[in-house]
Amino acid sequence: MSAELIPLDYATLRVLWWAILGFLLIGFGVLGGADLGVGALLPFVARHDAERRVAINAIGPTWEGNQVWFVLGGGAVFAAWPQVYAASFSVFYSVMLVLLLALILRPVGFDYRNKLRNARWRAVWDVCLTIGGGVPAFLFGAAFGNLLQGVPFRLDETMRLSYEGSILGLLNPFALLCGLVSLAMLVMHGGMYLVMKTGGPVRERARSAVRWSSCVLIMLFGFGGVCALFWIKGYVITGTIDFGGPSNPLAKAVSRSLGAWYTNYAEHGWLLAAPGLAFGGAILGFVLATFRRGAIGIWFTAASVAGVIATAGISMFPFILPSRLHPQSSLTVWDASSSPLTLFMMLAAVVLLMPVVLIYTGWVLRLMRGRIDEKYVRENADALY
Amino acid sequence: MIDFDVVGLSRLQFGLTAMYHFLFVPLTIGLSVLMAIMETVYVMTGREVWREATRFWGKLFGINFAMGVATGITMEFQFGTNWAYYSHYVGDVFGVPLAIEGMMAFFLESTFIGVFFFGWNRLSRRKHLAVTWLVALGANLSALWILIANAWMHNPVGAKFSYETMRMELTSLWEVFFNPVAQAKFVHTVSACYVTGAVFVLSISAYYLLRNRHTDFARCSMVVASSFGLASALSVAVLGDESGYALTDHQKMKLAAIEGMWETEKAPAAFTVFGWPDEKTQTTKWAVRVPYVLGIIATRSLNEELPGIKQQLVRVEAHIRDGIEALKALRVLRKDKTNVEARLIFEKHGRYMGYALLLRRHVADPATANADQIKLAARDTVPAVLPLFWAFRFMVGIGFYLIFLFAWAFIETTRRRYGGRIFRWIALASLPLPWFASELGWFVAEHGRQPWVIEGLLPTFMGASAVPLANVIVSLVAFILFYSTLLVVDLFLMVKYVRIGPAPPDGRRRLLAKPERVTERLDGTPEPAE
């Protein structure tokens, strides 16, 4: 297929791929995020082995598939936004290392924990699962916190990246705040999943976790919005933009100003639905957790997760990876994408394959439905994690 | 500028994590198909022993799969962390098969693997069988897409350099997908994975027969392993991917290095079975040669000649000179897109621009290179001959030995004898061999690709991120410590569960399913009575 035959123009393809990236991130936040939240909550909602097995087996059959959203997100950025992939992962080298090491603990933690009936063995894997849930939940937010401020890289004429700054620069106060927002958000969502999926004391403790984490989320997320208004400078493209031009980040001019991250909301008021969803979902999550309505509540905490991620994405649009060091090098929707043919081929793959993925994921979630409690774990001990 | 220490350590890190990854992948792929076959027999015959076999090998599969995932994530993200310029330069093409792999294969495998383990009581026999086959399908499709991506690094078809974006861009997904190197690699690699799974099942079954334990189960497993293994081992050898080596320029260089072939071989080329390549004198000492064989393997013909290393260097030098012209034209084009003369030069020589980049190791600006520097850069395209020569021969040796082993096993099982003590000991001792062969095979393929990361387009040292050296040292040490620890745990669990063995059908299962005494009370409540 040649480039002339593509039925969509380049600018449309770019916006669609920005939306698909958001869809994949939200997919991971909603499905994989609940598993991370459960991991982070593990020692707090489950005190001894039987309870821990309740919590772990609530996500046992599905966490593996859910994590693929993250892997696919990485692959999709690689294919659709190659320079974003290159810049973000190498700028965040140390953070990525910690993130990878934490994520590595999960597959082995889940699978190896029940393989020995030794209390110390299991305690070690419980720590691993807690780290493997909590640390990524925090780091994803911290990474977004850095994106919102811009990260320290520049591009040279051959599009080679160079960096300044250290890991300490990446863990600045605003990044820590965003890390806590995402941790609270996923703890709330994971907690609601446990309210829906488990019974007994685990469910009761998860219920109280949802209640306080949703309050923390509402406060910190609101405070983040205040920071973006008064302290965190946003980025704006100045001058003319070639929406359908070849991807060359250095062809534009960029300035920084306070409140720039509010521009999109000021121009299109309906976009405020995203932060509205974040707050509303969390509030209803709190209420529904109070009444132990996990099966309905999970939809609202999921909406809150989607709202938080969408808020960050929309605030920055069209920026994907702003550069603090050299704003002109910032990567945006209009100048960091793959070629039109790649975007179109990948779009075709998404349209053909993702509905199938959603259908069988739904089938598996339905197949594995039902509440898990200590009695269930006891009766199926050999067949579970 | 380019820090060669960072490049070296990044290469070491990628190589090591890839080799860790491939300790687990072949067994995952091989066992997934073997499990699906065994479960099919269970559904067809209804005999419980086949269900226990599926579950037992499934348990070992699960222990191994966890490590495959733990090492695989690192592989994907290292492209971004350590090979940022590579990611920018080829992401438009290389990222596509990786992303499709995620959507088409990894999702399938990972979603249904949970159902495989937890769905025994929730699904009918047939439905569970379908799930097992979907897991196997996912594992195999995953290999297909990853190898398409890998093959593109060896034979970058369906793409073109764009001077406006300074990167390779896709021109035809069709060509990338039907890359002949990808096809050769897929069949060869996946067959090798099947062999690994089959050797694993064969060896452990032989172990049970030696110990006179679980004999019914072991015989059943051995029947499947020997027939499946024999077919796969033959496929690995017959469809070996040396056939792909005759295709492209650098593959020819690799082939010459593997064969220690310093001078051009007149058709039909002879195969050097044994010898000692000497890089200093550029000769292969004590060579023992079999006529015709190499010509048949590499060109599938008796009338094509194969160029030797020395002759190929002449061609490489010409490419470097063309590449310098392309690089100069590119610089003009970057300043003035409308310059027709520069565009014509670039269109003529552009495909050799990567060769000029090889000069960056010897001179800051390739456009100013002199004849000596061009000679040095050309010499860089010769991979290390001695290790490739021997790694290849060990791999092939193991491959042929395994054909022999499976043929023997096949005869034993068809005669319903399942081997005597000698056969069983040999089968058990052969357990590590497919792993050696796989790792050697990757070494030959990827070390032989050097100095290129994308053959002919981008030298490896150009692809690395400009991250601080300290970061790479820390991550390298962290990965080695992490993965080595987890590997020990993985092996410990594998051995432990092999020792425990499969649960016997029905009644006695509960007794054996709790092989250990609880060393400490796990919770506050007394152990429930069985």
List keywords for this structure.
heterodimer; A: 385 residues; mainly alpha; two-stranded antiparallel ribbon; 6 strands; globular; B: 530 residues; 5% strand; disordered C terminus
Distance between the termini of chain A: 48 Å
Structural class of chain A: mainly alpha
Oligomeric status: heterodimer
In which order are the strands of the major sheet of chain A placed? 1-2
Order of strands, main sheet of chain B, comes to 1-2
Global geometry of chain A:
globular
Q: Rg of chain A, please?
A: 21 Å
Please bin the fraction of helical residues of chain B.
55-70%
* Average residue pLDDT of chain B: 86
What does this structure look like?
The complex is a heterodimer of chains A (about 375) and B (about 525). By secondary structure, chain A is mostly helical. Chain A has 14 helices and six strands. In chain A, the strands form three sheets. Chain A has a two-stranded antiparallel sheet with strand order 1-2. A two-stranded antiparallel ribbon of chain A has the order 3-4. Chain A has a two-stranded antiparallel sheet with strand order 5-6. The longest helix of chain A is centred in the N-terminal third of the chain and has 36 residues, at about 10-45. Chain B is mainly alpha-helical and about 525 residues long. Chain B has a two-stranded antiparallel sheet with strand order 1-2. In chain B, α2 (about 50-80) packs antiparallel against α3 (about 85-120) and α10 runs antiparallel to α11 (about 340-350). The longest helix of chain B is centred in the N-terminal third of the chain and has 42 residues, at about 5-45. Chain B is globular and about 75 Å long. The termini of chain B are far apart. Mean pLDDT of chain B is about 85; it is low at about 505-530. Chains A and B meet through α2, α3, α4, α5 and α6 of A and α2, α3, β2 and α18 of B.
